Every structure is written in C-alpha cells, then in structure tokens.
Amino acid sequence: MFDADEWGPQSEPPTLLADQIHVWRADLNCDPELLRRFEFTLAPDEKARADRFHFPRDRNAFVATRGVLRDLLAKYVSRNPAELMFDYGARGKPSLRGAPKHPVQFNVSRSYGLALLAFTLERSVGVDIELIRPDFGGIEIAERYFSPPEIRELKSLPSALSSEGFFLCWTRKEAYVKARGEGLQIPLDSFQITLTPGKPERLESADSSRWSLRSLTPGPRYAGALVAEGKNWRVHCRQWKPEQSSDSARKF
Fold first, then answer.
1. What is the pLDDT of residue 91?
2. pLDDT at 247
3. Cross-strand pairs, 20
4. Does the 4-123+232-251 domain belong in CATH 3.90.470.20?
5. Residues 234, 238, 244, 248: what is their CA dihedral angle, to the nearest 10 degrees?
6. What is the pLDDT of residue 251?
7. Rounded Cα–Cα distance for residues 64 and 69 (Å)
8. In this structure, which CATH number among 3.90.470.20, 3.50.30.10, 1.10.1040.10, 3.90.550.10 belongs to the domain 130-229?
9. Residue numbers of the chain with a pLDDT score lower than 70
C-alpha cells in the first residue's frame, strides 16, 4: 500500500521504464487562469463534454482532469498537449491515438477535487479514487453489487471501519473493471476483492493470474486502487504541480 506521505515531487521530464507504473495525484482546485490554459488544449469533443455539466464545479473538475492528463501525456511522448488525440474503446476507455497501439497506456479517476492518473508502457491499467464518506449507505449498495464473501467481510467490520471498508472494496473493483476496459459488461459480483482496512489487498477472479492489485492512499479521507497487467511492476507515486505561468504560456 502506498500512503499519502509517499507522493513525492515530480521529476522533469518523467521517464517510464518497462517495469514501472507512474501514478500522479493532482489537486483539481485550479485557479481561473490555469483552467483557461487547460481548456485551450482540449479537443472539440472534450469541450462539448465539459459544456454538458450543469454545475460549474463539475465542469471545472472535468477540464482540470483533462488538462492535467494532456500535460503529463505530452511530457511522456514529447508532444504539445493540444496536439494529442484520443481513441475510445467500445466501453469508453480512452487511449492515445497511435498505430496500431501506442505504447504509453493510461487511466484516470477523480473524486471530490482530487484526481489520480496512472501511466505505464504496453500494459492495460486501471485506477480509481473515492472520497470516504461516512454517511454513505455502503451496506445497501454492497448487498446489491458485491459478492457474498465481500458482503460478509464488510458486515464483520466494526462500525468505525465500515465506510472505509466499503470504499476500499469499491475502488479495487472499479480499478479492475477499468483495467479490463469492459465497463458494466463485467458484473461486480463475478469476482472477489478483500476489503478489511490495514490488511493486504487480494483479487480473486477467473483471470486473476493476469493482473496485480495495489492499494493507494491519495489523502487522509480518500481510498484508491491500481490494477495492471503483470506481476513484477513497480509503482512510483508523484504529486502533480502546475508550471509557472510563463513556462505554461510557452507550452500551451
């Protein structure tokens, strides 16, 4: 498990090795100037998606997430952020356009002002983040979507750990589903995740030999998870920081 204290400063430029996965944490509470610069880099379809959000807060979070994604991808592939183009899988999972498949693979998740962005080479990857909300009806949701062993494990937790256990399970499940890129085609009760806080994470599925699961702690009140192909990769956690305005103006 990687906790909030291990999110070190970014290195310039970031370099991916074959056995690495880089996970970036980004604060989405950007100032208006940075949001404008980010929006300038977005493709027309991304701008259209942004405009469909009803609340400015949600629109800004989407623009910031896409802006950070483009900023980081541009560094990995030595391109201008505005030049990047994306393809989307049958279930909506984005990938960097390339023929036939770009070696840099990535996945993104955001929740309540914080985002996680995972990057790797030539392996499928999924990441998820959720704010742990004590007032969330976790047991009711679990009984509808979780597997019987997960429901039993969740119900066995002390009440003080119930919310954290639910969101640990949820993020781990979401990361696995996102790594496979099949969305809701995968029933959430068709595979099993451990969820007890403080204990090792474990994935049990028909294809679990193909995947590895790691827990992440993006912040004191957040749960996070990472799933990727293979068994011998290493995780490097980094904190994304915006560049100075003068540098950013030249880049964007």
1. 77
2. 45
3. 234
4. yes
5. 50
6. 41
7. 8
8. 3.90.470.20
9. 1-5, 10-13, 99, 244-252
